[in-house]
Amino acid sequence: MGSMPAPLTRYFSFHILSGIFIAKLRHFRHGLRMKVSVAIITRNEASRLPNCLESLTFADDILVVDSGSSDPTVSIAEEFGCRVLSEAWRGYAKQKQFAVDNCLYDLVLILDADERIPLETAEGIKGITQNENQLCAAYSFSRKNFFHNRWIRHCGWWPDRIVRLVDRRRGQFSDRLVHEQWLARGPVKALDFSIEHYSFRNYSDLIHKMEAYSSLSALEMLRKRKRVGWLPPITHGVWMFLRTYLLERGFLEGFDGLVISILNAGGSFLKYAKYREIRSDGSSGV
Questions:
Q1: Is the preceding peptide bond at 159 cis, omega within 30 degrees of 0?
Q2: Residues 58 and 129 grouped into a single domain
Q3: Residues 6 or more apart from 275 whose CB is under 8 A from it?
Q4: Is residue 57 part of a domain?
Q5: Please, what's the b/e burial string for 107-120 (b: 16 or more CB within 10 A of its CB; e: otherwise)?
Q6: How does pLDDT run across 235-284, given as a tens digit for each residue?
Q7: Is 188 found in the same domain as 56?
Q8: Taking a C-beta distance cutoff of 8 angstroms, is the pair 99, 173 a contact?
C-alpha cells in the first residue's frame, strides 16, 4: 500500500496535534479550580474540633479564630495544620466576620467546631470550585442536627437551612447579637447537600443555650425599644411550645422532643421576661 500524500499527512497530523492540545488545555483548565478557605471560631472545643477538621480534606486553607480557650483547642488546630489566630470575643457576628476577613481565599466555608462535612457534601463543594464563572454570591445547606446520637427530624430542627459557603466579596454578616446571618449581595443557591451538626451533648447544653440566647435576644430587642407588657412572655412561651411540639411534630421525637419543646418555650418566655427586666431597672446585665 502506497504512502499517504504529503499534504494529507500534514492535514491529519495538524488535527491530531490540535486534538491533543485541546485535551491538554481542558485538563489544565480543570486543574485551575477555585481554592476554598474554611473559617471556624472556637473557645474550648477540644472535644469536638478533631471530628470537624477530619471532615475538611478538600480545604486549601483552614483558619481557626480562638477566643481564649483553656483546653487544648489551639494545639489540636495546629496539629491539623490549621492557621490559628487569637482574638478576644467580639460577639458571634463580628467574630465570624473577623475570621472570614482573615481567610486566604475569597470562597469561604463558614463552620462551627461542632459541625462536620459529609463526604457527599465535600464532593459537592469541590464541584462548585470548578465553575468560577457560574459562582453564586452564597450557597445554603440543609443541616442535620443530632442529639443523643440520633438525627432529630422534627421540632423545627430539619431541614434547618443555613448559608455557609460564601463569596466574601459579595456579602457580610449582619450586626445582630444572636442568630447572626450572612447577608449576600447576589443570588443564593440552595444545595442538595447537608452539614452534620452535633451541638448539644446533653440537656444541660440545651439549658445553657436557652439561658445565653434569651439574654442576647433580650438585648437585641432593647435596640428596638419596644414596649412589652406582662402578657407577651406567657403568650410567646405557650405558642412556642405548641408550635414545636404539635405543629413541628416534636411529639414524634419521644421524650427528647418534649424536652426540646419545653426548653424552646422557656427560651421564648425568658427573652421577653428579661427584656421587661432590663427596661424596668435600666440594667443590661442579663
A1: yes
A2: yes
A3: 218, 221, 222, 226, 228
A4: yes
A5: bbbbbbbbbbbeee
A6: 999 999 999 999 999 999 999 999 999 999 999 999 999 999 998 876 55
A7: yes
A8: no
